[in-house]
Specification:
The complex is a heterodimer of chains A (293) and B (556).
Chain A: H1 9-25, H2 29-46, H3 49-73, E1 80-84, E2 87-90, H4 91-117, H5 120-130, H6 132-161, H7 170-201, H8 219-240, E3 246-247, E4 253-254, H9 261-292
Antiparallel strand pairs in A: 1-2, 3-4
Chain B: E1 2-12, E2 21-29, E3 33-37, H1 44-51, E4 60-67, E5 70-71, H2 77-83, E6 84-87, H3 100-111, H4 115-128, H5 144-156, E7 162-166, H6 174-191, E8 194-198, H7 202-205, E9 211-216, E10 219-224, H8 229-236, H9 248-256, H10 266-276, E11 295-304, E12 314-322, E13 326-330, H11 337-344, E14 352-357, E15 360-361, E16 375-378, H12 391-401, H13 406-419, H14 435-446, E17 453-457, H15 465-480, E18 484-489, H16 492-498, E19 501-506, E20 509-514, H17 516-522, H18 529-534, H19 544-555
Parallel strand pairs in B: 3-8, 3-9, 6-7, 7-8, 13-18, 13-19, 16-17, 17-18
Antiparallel strand pairs in B: 1-2, 1-4, 4-5, 9-10, 11-12, 11-14, 14-15, 19-20
The chains are: A mainly alpha (293), B alpha/beta (556).
């Protein structure tokens, strides 16, 4: 288990929400570069190098395609590079394509990281915080799927050797499949009666049900949550006041680094590097401990 | 202190005339281990469920049940959930959630315990039951035995005072069953937990129980210490349905004596046999030679593995099975028994070697023709056999699939049902039948295609002694008709009395084979309880009947 995955699900969820929402909503090259850098470093700690290089290659190709094709669809730029009849290709359109590619890749990379950190168990927990009943139903359903698949396999095997699939005509085969499916449904309904008995035997339906999870909210979680909240506040307020951002059309308008944008850049830089920093700290601590043993 | 008292309890199901329970009375002291036995349908399950309010069936109840001196009706739902634990037969259907830890916490969540308390209880329960290793895993990835241990652990996490178990090992193989029973015993001895357990697997349970309650037709016919049970049954003049399922030592004692305390374990049985009987004649006459028909099934150097990189499950397996033979394949878990059967049935194809049926390679039976009139395979779970809403419809559908004209199939179905004693059940839904009835119905269905060869996987699983006896008679009759039966089983006792030839599969190969008497008298661990009792005293006694015959013969 990686260090950043050990934080409480709520902390992880808030963290990823802040990063992904920022990348999606605030169009700014510096922020995008920071998101990509932080994501790349984090991925470097999470996944094997081979996989990362492969992905990087895919993303480069993907970015190239977007940058190259965007001018075909948008003709709003002021700086025309060349034109053919009604068709004109502008410099701004290339920049815009670059921005789009950075946004999309940034979101994809961070979503991949999210799916590793927020496992289905954590997801169920988060869902259970909002809708406890639904979370239990989902848990039951998730369990039922492999059970049903196994039953289908067993019933159809049994029926085959008993001679039910006696003809190779397609109609017959479809009918036999239907019968197998119906049997499995009956079987599953039967066993769900047992399940509900087992639930009530263990007191399901009593008043004052609590929910248990394996996650505990500790001091570290509070610290990371506070840090995330503080950095997010700087980024969001800055973005809302227009301290950062870029417009591509008709000409590229980008404020660059200045007194207003610098705090936002710095805050987001710290935010995106946090997972990498956490992993590094853990690595160093571990190495240090091992060397002492 | 008395924890439970049942007074003159009678119960009738709403749709039925006859009483399911008739005047049942008994009392249970705290810390007692009670074994509840009786043939299928004798009312064990009804009784156990009436003791647990949430599971009590609909119907009319007379008499009274007192839990800790209080009528059961006055026990609150919370108390009942917390203090009375219940484990059912099917390991799968009792599990609610997808994660092991969540399942353990489920009951505690329902009770509304604070998170820190749940944490502690889940952890200590996992430790006690040895499930820490798969605590974080998915419930679906567990074996049957592990699932049942989890079900027990989930109930025990709620700290019950009374544990009710309804045939908890019925679906488990013998090793997993022994482990499960050992765990229950540990709970009883180490925590002083009161246990009432209903079960057919009596050989192992009799030595552990403090008291045995025997039921027949809804009434208690004997309530005594294990060693006094045969005498008590004799006094009541009942219990004929239970007797064949008692431990071997008790059956030998019961056949030879009329009064006194019976031996229970193999050890006591050995001591009793040596003190009470003589052994001038040490051996039974050798039985007639084996069946010498044409070869029905042949496996030649069969090798099989599930995946390219996986180890071999079958490693050069060879066997010849003759027509009309009952051939039993024994072996532990993972020895490749079921895989062998799958290969014989053509469900799996070996990567080396050949399987032939009546001299013809199995792959030359094109277009499923193997399954029409040649071979039929009865899988472990009879639930997988039936696909229609009534037994009659199910059998008729198979007739149609066999190409029988519709007007003839009605008569054929009724005739077939009569042959297997299920004609009274034709209108019922196959799932509503008892285990033994399902097995009979499944056999009736199998034989509609008139196969020459029957393959059976664990045919005695979860069956009581009477049903096993029925099955044995049926198989004997079928083999008399010249049909070949190949069964794979853990049930050594059944193989010893039923099979013509037994083989031991180990590590993907057949290590030993022979007629039961020769086969089992050579084994030391892997043999019947009767043989273990008689070992060193009589030479080739394998079944209880063998031992009794020799003992009586020596008396004269």
């Amino acid at each position: 288990m990686k260090a950043f995955s050990q934080f409480h699900p709520i902390v992880s969820a808030v963290y990823f929400a802040v990063v992904i929402v920022t990348v999606m909503l605030v169009s700014d090259p510096v922020l995008q570069a920071e998101a990509l850098l932080g994501g790349a470093l984090f991925a470097g700690m999470q996944f094997p190098a081979r996989r990362n290089l492969k992905r990087a290659l895919y993303y480069c190709v993907f970015a190239l395609i977007i940058v190259a094709t965007n001018p075909l669809f948008s003709h709003n730029g002021a700086t025309v590079l060349f034109s053919a009849g009604r068709f004109s290709v502008s410099l701004e359109a290339f920049f815009y394509g670059g921005g789009m590619a950075a946004l999309m890749i940034g979101v994809i990379v961070w979503c991949e990281l999210l799916s590793v950190v927020i496992t289905d168990e954590k997801f169920m927990y988060l869902l259970g915080r909002v809708l406890p009943k639904l979370s239990l139903v989902l848990s039951y359903t998730i369990r039922l799927v492999p059970v049903i698949v196994r039953r289908i396999r067993r019933v159809s095997g049994a029926q085959r050797t008993m001679g039910l699939y006696s003809e190779d005509s397609r109609l017959n085969r479809i009918r036999s499949r239907g019968e197998v499916l119906r049997t499995v449904v009956t079987w599953s309904l039967e066993s769900s009666v047992d399940t509900s008995l087992s639930m009530s035997a263990r007191g399901y339906g009593l008043r004052g049900r609590t929910t248990f999870s394996r996650f505990r909210f500790g001091g570290k979680d509070a610290a990371l949550l506070a840090l995330t909240a503080a950095l997010a506040a700087v980024v969001f307020i800055g973005a809302a006041k227009g301290a950062v951002g870029i417009t591509y059309y008709p000409t590229v308008d980008f404020g660059g680094f200045n007194g207003r944008s610098l705090p936002v850049y710095l805050a987001f830089f710290c935010l995106t590097l946090t997972p990498f920093a956490v992993e590094c700290k853990e690595e160093i601590k571990w190495k240090y401990c091992v060397s002492k043993i | 202190m008395e924890i439970l008292r049942v007074e003159n309890l009678s119960f009738t199901y709403p749709t039925e005339q006859a009483q399911a329970l008739r005047g049942v009375s008994f009392s249970v002291k705290e810390g007692e281990f009670i074994l509840l036995c009786g043939a299928s349908g004798c009312g064990k399950t009804t009784l156990l469920r009436l003791l647990k309010e949430e599971l009590a069936p609909e119907g009319t109840t007379e008499g009274a049940i007192y839990y800790k001196g209080k009528p059961l009706a006055e026990v609150t739902r919370r108390e009942s959930a917390e203090e009375v634990g219940f484990v059912m037969q099917d390991p799968d259907s009792q599990i609610v959630t997808d994660k092991v830890w969540h399942e353990l916490a489920f009951g505690l969540e329902n009770l509304g315990l604070p998170r820190s308390a749940i944490r502690l209880r889940a952890a200590e329960t996992a430790g006690f039951f040895g499930i820490s290793d798969w605590f974080g895993g998915n419930t679906d990835e567990l074996s049957g035995g592990q699932k049942q241990v989890l079900n027990l652990a989930c109930v025990m996490a709620m700290h019950p005072a009374l544990l009710l178990l309804d045939e908890p090992t019925g679906q488990l193989d013998p090793i997993a069953a022994s482990e499960f029973i050992a765990t229950v015993k540990k709970l009883n001895t180490e925590l002083g937990l009161t246990v009432i357990l209903a079960e057919h697997r009596l050989e192992e349970l009799f030595p552990l129980a403090d008291r045995v309650i025997v039921m027949e037709n809804g009434a208690v016919v004997s309530d005594a210490r294990p060693c006094e049970t045969p005498a008590a049954l004799r006094r009541s003049g009942k219990g004929a349905t239970v007797l064949p399922g008692l431990p071997a030592a008790m059956r030998i004692f019961d056949a030879l004596e009329t009064e006194g305390a019976s031996p229970v374990t193999v050890k006591e049985g050995r001591a009793y046999l040596r003190s009470a009987c003589r052994n001038g004649t040490r051996a039974l006459p050798e039985e007639a030679g084996s069946v010498a028909g044409p070869v029905a099934l042949e496996l030649k150097n069969v090798c099989f593995r599930y995946e390219k990189t996986a180890p071999d499950v079958l490693r050069g397996l060879s066997a010849q099975i003759r027509e009309g033979e009952i051939f039993a394949v024994l072996g532990g878990n993972g020895s490749g028994k079921t895989t062998m059967l799958d290969c014989l049935a053509g469900l799996r194809r070996p990567y080396a070697g050949s399987v032939s049926v009546y001299g013809k390679k199995i792959k030359d039976y094109k277009n499923n023709s193997l399954y029409r009139g040649v071979l039929s395979y009865l899988p472990q779970d009879p639930k997988t056999v039936f696909v229609q809403d009534s037994l009659e419809a199910d059998l008729t559908a198979l007739c149609a699939a066999m190409g029988k004209p519709a007007e003839e199939s009605g008569a054929a179905v009724r005739e077939q049902a009569a042959r297997f004693g299920v004609e009274g059940l034709l209108a019922r839904h196959p799932y509503d039948l008892s285990g033994g009835e399902q097995q009979k119905a499944a056999l009736a269905k199998m034989l509609l295609s008139d196969p020459r060869i029957l393959l059976m996987d664990e045919p005695t699983k979860g069956m009581d002694a009477a049903a096993k006896n029925d099955l044995m008679e049926t198989l004997r009759r079928l083999s008399g008709e010249g049909r070949t039966v190949v069964m794979v089983t853990h049930d050594i006792e059944f193989a010893a009395v039923c099979a013509d030839r037994c083989a031991m599969l180990f590590d993907g190969e057949i290590f030993a084979e022979g007629a039961p008497r020769a086969f089992f008298s050579d084994n030391n661990f892997y043999t019947t309880a009767a043989n273990r009792i008689a070992r060193g005293f009589y030479d080739n006694a394998v079944t209880v009947e063998d031992v009794v015959t020799l003992a009586l013969g020596n008396r004269q």
